[in-house]
Amino acid sequence: MSAIPRYLLSDNSTVGDDGALSVGGCAVSDLAAEYGTPLFVYDENHLRERCREAVAAFGHGRVVYATKAFLCRAMARLAYDEGMLLDVASGGELHVALAAGVPAGACTLHGNNKSLDELRHGIEEGVRHIVVDSFDELDRLDSLYREGLGPTPKVLLRITPGVHAHTHEFIATGQDDSKFGFNLGNGDALKAVDRASRSPSVDLVGVHCHIGSNVFEASSFAKAAEVMADFAVPLDLPELVLGGGLGVAYVEGEEAPTINQWGSVLLDACAALGVRSKVSVEPGRAIVAAAAMTVYTVGTIKEIPGVRTYVAVNGGMSDNPRPVLYGSGYESFLPRAVNAERNLTARLVGKHCESGDVLSLAAKLPADVAVGDLLATPVTGAYGHSMGSNYNKITRPPVVFAADGDARLVVRRETFEDLLVTDVG
Ligand SMILES: *Cc1c(COP(=O)(O)O)cnc(C)c1O
Question: Are residues 129 and 155 in contact, defined by beta-carbon separation less than 8 angstroms?
């Protein structure tokens, strides 16, 4: 069986004469020694390059980074410095973006169930757009207007276009049966446009859709763009936002469109249908996923003859819940031997008290994997750190940005004291 495919490693990954991996010019073994494991290692120039690719494809001010994929102050700043705006989906995400020094005027507030406080916070701070998701939210905006809160927020309406994206059910959001948005098919979308365009409490500037996440088929995006263009052209509003959702390759054999190809599909579809609005997108995963890997230490290897081998690392579902949530696959390899054939098939598991705490059901690893080895899972830059938890009171791993031979700690490892910060006992 083959070595880890190099295309799953971040752009600035290099392998030395000794077969060992460096990221951004930093030896992974040095990073592990300095910061401990588990550790998220981001290739900073890879992140910047994906931001630049997106901005080049769609235009300055037309790419909104979906912060839920991965957010800390360094990431918020990086995306903003590279010419992107930020999509925040809660008061907490807005708080972190603002704490990073990103102006509220560069933030779009999302969420299917924003509270009155979140809306008030967004309006007071002066967010660029609020993407309104429901009639109840329009009611809440009316009540804030009656309170005299200003300025009048610029809003987009989230439309559910009835397009079924080919992805996992839990991350498909464009179909009619969805908690998100105003359905196009049953007339709610038009009713919402009608109400918002007459309402003094909002300034309707456009419509929005997001069909789902980790979508690989360019045709799904083209279809959504067509449906949205049909709806949006007669409205002739200034903004049309087509969401995020571009998939990335996680495992050997997967292939996703590039950001540039995605841009062509969407912009061509819009041009063909006569869209005159400013077209923007909101990528999350496609910007950050492949930029990072998680580095663990192997602690226990259990061989059950005739059954299987378990390889347990010192993290698991608390730093990467995606396999449990979506059945997602991940590759694995040993940073000390990047080119090694991976002839052992083992179940890669974490250290949590659950049989379901699996990182990879059938991980391929070099047969000489041993206790004490560093083990890495690539493409963990999206929805890993951000979906992490403290389950079993495991402290969350640190995040390091590596570039040009230097590494900087941007999120430190949690301590046992952190576990008690909110416990007023
Ligand atoms: C999650 C989300 C995104 C980003 O999705 P990715 O799959 O990470 O690109 C963009 N827009 C909205 C509204 C979202 O909910």
Answer: yes
